[in-house]
Design a protein that fits this description.
mainly alpha
Length: 130
């Protein structure tokens, strides 16, 4: 089972790499969600889902801190692709979960959707005038 650790991303001085590491951490946490659910450990599922949300938010904060124009920054596009993949994986988890347990996915899914929407808006939005 993969162990997630956002502290590695927090220590990275390069903000683009920090964002990438945070998103990799979110993916690892989703692996943990799947494994913990199959093992019947709902507390671990909830903790890993909280880690997913925290990682995605940290990734977005790191990207914003770069000060780069999202329209031309590759890191924004990578983050958009990663968050889209995370949303697909969350949907996949929803399919394997019992209907009773599915609501534990909602907060993490909403957070990932929110960040994904922000990324799309930043990439596709109008240029800011200085």
């Amino acid at each position: 089972m993969l162990v997630f650790d956002l502290s590695l991303a927090r220590q990275e001085p390069n903000l683009d790499k920090r964002s990438d590491l945070a998103l990799k951490n979110a993916a690892a946490a989703l692996d943990t969600v799947r494994d913990a659910y199959q093992a019947g450990d709902l507390d671990k599922v909830k903790a890993a889902l909280a880690e997913v949300g925290e990682s995605v938010e940290f990734s977005n904060e790191s990207l914003e801190a770069t000060g780069k124009n999202p329209r031309g920054a590759a890191a924004y596009k990578r983050a958009e692709i990663s968050t889209r993949q995370l949303l697909r994986r969350i949907d996949g988890l929803r399919q394997i979960m019992s209907a009773v347990d599915r609501d534990v996915l909602d907060p993490a899914q909403q957070k990932v959707e929110s960040v994904h929407d922000q990324l799309i808006q930043a990439i596709m939005g109008k240029k800011k005038k200085k």
